[in-house]
Amino acid sequence: MQHSTLRIAWRNLGRNKKRTLLAVGAIALGQLTLVFITGLMAGAQHDMLQTATGPLVGHVQVHHRDWREERAVDLYIDDMETMKAALLRLPQVKTVSTRIFAPVLSAFGEESDTPADAEPAVIVGIDVAEESEKGGLLEWVTPKERPDEQGVLIGSVLANRLHLKPGQQVALIGQDADGFPVSDLFQVKGILNSSVDIVNTLGIVMLRSTAGLFLGMPNQAHEIIIQGEDYRNADALAKAVAALPEFASLEVLSWKEAMPELIRFIELKKWFDFILLAIVFAAAAAGIANTSLMSTYERTHELGMLLSLGARPRRLIRMVLIESILLGVAGVVIGAFFGALLILITAKTGVNFVALGGSDAEGIAYAGINISYVYYPQLEWQQPLYGLIAVVLTSILAATWPAAHISKLEPVEALRS
User: Fold this and answer.
1) pLDDT tens digit string along 200-256?
2) Pairing of strands 151-155, 181-192
3) Does the CA dihedral 268-272-274-278 come out positive or negative?
4) Span 256-284, mean pLDDT?
5) Average pLDDT, whole number, for the chain?
6) Which residue in 112, 107, 99, 108 sits closest to 211, CA to CA?
7) Cα dihedral across residues 131, 134, 135, 139: positive or negative
8) Rounded to whole angstroms, how far apart are CA atoms 318 and 238?
């Protein structure tokens, strides 16, 4: 009985091929949109999180409790060697890097040592070995270009403003941790194009030891960046770090606390996914309801004949319901297939939205990081599943109207139609 009902339902979909194909096409287009756009958003979110939790924030960061608010040079963390040793004893910790930040005036070598010719800049003192690992500030910098005791890297935007090129000298004027004026000349080893906006626009990247000597901070730093195994475990890692006695007086933040803007972006993506799912729902509802209703009214005479031959109304209702579900599932499967295929193709090539619009811009700064306009979609397997569930539910709802019509049919009146 069930088998024959399914076969009849499948055959009925082929009675009006154009209408069936239009309905399947509408559902498939909605599902394709859901799969591809959510995959595109997932890729953008993943790239943003990887960039932010890499060179900018890390998984967990540590500061003096007042440093983030005041950014004063003397608000540092003391005894770096002891702090790093305590962190590396935690099994969750993968790498630890320390940084010094200090505002200075920068100028073109010895020719321009007055404030009138200077540009504001920020010294970024780093641990070169740690920052050269994957996710570090120097991940893409060749060994020859990495900073050394007198050689520094200049952010690309700052270098352009100062008209500096590798091999030339940059003069720095500032104050040390005790408030005394300091100045020195440094060799420019390379121009750094970083995903961190402040490094591009203001950065003078040098060894932490060099920055410490220049600023009177031999064994201190302003920031400790901690990388664990996975950024999704950052909250647990932050709790473990905060529980260490050495860090009791310091501020310990996971990347979620340090960058609430990214959390808002993630929440926005969830709402965006929901809206797209609603689009699939609406497309399926319109297509299935129209097809099922028209098919039911066109077959009123045939349905009356089946009723007169002893068929029960609930079997006919079940047949219409199966037709609706088959229609929806066919659209979802086709749309999911082509959506997944499109993602697999563009995941390798990327989608450059700016190039599509005729521009050659490379990225945009958001929340302190440079975000590329080239997105690499990621396939989210749950989205086709959500679409399938939504369409099945829609199919059941869409079939209620024709089912109500069938339940009210009288065999004699139906045969006269």
Assistant:
1) 899 999 999 999 999 999 899 999 999 988 888 899 999 999 999 999 999 999 988
2) parallel
3) positive
4) 73
5) 80
6) 99
7) positive
8) 56
